Amino acid sequence: MNWLMFAIGAAIFTAAAALTQKKVLNKEHALEFSTVLAILNFAIVFVFLPQTNFDIGWDKYLLIYGVSWFAAIAYLMVAKAARHSEISAVSPIMNFGPAITASMAFLVLGEKISALQVAGIGLLILGMYVLEIKKDLKNFLDPFKEFVKSKYNHFIIFALILYGFTSIADRYIMTHGVGVETYQFIVHGFVLMNYLLIITIFYDGIKGVINGFKSAGKWILLVSIFTVAYRYMQAKAVSMMYVGLVSAIKRLSNVVITLVGGKIYHEKNVLIKVLGCIIMIWGAVFIII
């Protein structure tokens, strides 16, 4: 199977995971959900144990552990946003990832931004504008104000910054002696450790974990299966091809999530949000290519 098939598979399972996750988060606390999901994810990736090579060097362990913290915090931020916002609004904003990565590379690494990338960033801003358009639009700046004032949009942007670091680190790790199965097993173990620490310090610890299993265990298991599947397929694709190309294919899932999720959960202005999402995906592609 080539990288494109893995990337398409990652997009399909990403959409399935997001749609099921929204159903759970309508009733479940975000941290409880994330911790139970981490437990189930780690249980599932035990299938990779026979293929896991633990002799990868302490430097790789430290790097993977750092990535696991970024991934854990980013996922929790997105879960909080998904719980309190419409899925047809959250999903398109995830397309801002390439713009954030390009901007970080420009500011931190001094990399140049091409004219095509500038056009891509422009399309992302246009898509965001369309996404926030309401029927009672009175002022040209209203959509921008709507976007900025939402703290859950801030959560997503922060998560995307963290995901930008993890995507780069993922490819580095898996092209420097760490196999996909080894990486999946170790990083999921670290993510679980992180969530157990967070829920113990900031929430209700084991009580919250037990409550999560009781109230939504079956649905979270389904999310877990979809999540492990898309992470594995994305990792396989990234190990074969550039992160940007894989990311561009995977972002097609956002159109499905926006359209199907908006209809399932009876959200407002779904078709306008789909249009905004499509514009943003083109913007992301322009930045990546």
Could you outline the blueprint of secondary structure elements for this entry?
Elements: H1 3-25, H2 30-44, H3 58-84, H4 87-93, H5 97-108, H6 115-131, H7 142-149, H8 151-174, H9 180-202, H10 206-240, H11 243-250, H12 253-264, H13 270-288
Helix pairs in contact: 1-10, 1-11, 1-12, 2-3, 2-9, 2-10, 3-8, 3-9, 4-12, 4-13, 5-8, 5-13, 6-13, 9-10, 11-13, 12-13
What do you see in this structure?
- By secondary structure, the chain is mainly alpha-helical.
- The protein is built from 13 helices and no strands.
- The radius of gyration is 19 Å and the shape is globular.
Largest sheet: none
Tell me the total number of β-strands.
Answer: 0
Order of helices and strands: HHHHHHHHHHHHH
Could you tell me the mean pLDDT? 86
Work out the count of structural domains.
1
Number of helices: 13
Task: Tell me the strand percentage band.
Answer: under 5%
- The percent of residues in helical segments reads over 70%
Q: Whole-number radius of gyration?
A: 19 Å
Which stretches are poorly predicted, pLDDT < 50 over at least 5 residues? none
Terminal Cα span: 23 Å
Q: What best-fitting shape do the alpha-carbon axes yield?
A: globular
Query: Structural class given helices, strands, pairing?
Result: mainly alpha
